Amino acid sequence: MPVAFIATTEDASLYEQAETLFVRAQSVEVPSEILLQAAILFAKSGDKNRTVESLALIDPDELKNVDFISYTLLGIELNLQSASPAEALLKLQATRFIALKSSFKRQDVLHILSLESDISAKLGNIESSINASIQLAQLLNKKSDVLNVHNKIWRQLSAQPYNVLQQCFNEAEPILGLWCNLAADMRLFQSNHPGQLTQFNTWKTANFSHPAARTPPSGKTRQWRTW
User: What is the pTM of this model?
Assistant: First the structure.
């Protein structure tokens, strides 16, 4: 699963390492690479404010391409946490970042797809968000990781009106369309739990190769009851 730079818990040891690097950067002629290392460690230590401070001091033109990728992804995470998805999207669409696409490592690709999904969701483009999650799930190896992504997709579909789900089924590409079809079918049986299970089994038999048939969202019976 993609691992975010910004941790949700504090780590004093990582903070001390970051602080040491930050101080060291003040005494070198080209500090941006060291500042990026400090920013990443501050992020992993759970200190968002020091992460922002360090990142603001970096001149991206001084960074090697591999570091520029990390610089961009960390910046996007910060934009999303500060409710600035439009700024995050601009970073994702930056000319230099796009030009480096062929050099992305596997973990970069996973991280980018996860961020793309979050950016699109915050901008209100649910179809693009789910499509990014579909691509992400297809690249994951662990079933538990796939399940986490499918649960996210299901939560997003659960919040959509029935007519939106129908339109998605009729107009979207096949994988997303069938996700919407499943969600719409379950909505029809929202007060009939046995009917939901029967309908799901019918849908699963007809679409046995679909990702949702191979790895259904967890807790689906509980979710279906509450629709």
Answer: 0.91
Phi-psi domain of 124 (left: phi exceeds 0; alpha: psi -120 through 50; beta: other)? left
Can you give the length of the chain in residues? 227
Euclidean distance between CA atoms 23 and 38, whole angstroms: 9
- Please name the residues in contact with 104: beta carbons below 8 A apart, sequence gap of 6 or more: 69, 112
C-alpha span between 162 and 157 (Å, rounded): 10
**Pairwise CA distance, residues 209 & 223, whole Å:** 23
Q: Which residues contact 60 (CB under 8 A, 6 or more apart)?
A: 32, 68, 71, 96
Quick one: tokens of 121? 């969701």
Question: Residue 97: is its pLDDT beyond 60?
Answer: yes
pLDDT digits (tens, 9 = 90+) for 126-165: 999 999 999 999 999 999 999 999 999 999 999 999 999 9
CA 75 centroid distance within chain: 14
CA separation (Å) from 128 to 106, 176, 191? Answer: 21, 10, 30
Give whole-number Cα distances, 154 to 50, 134, 148, 150, 226, in Å.
35, 11, 10, 6, 13
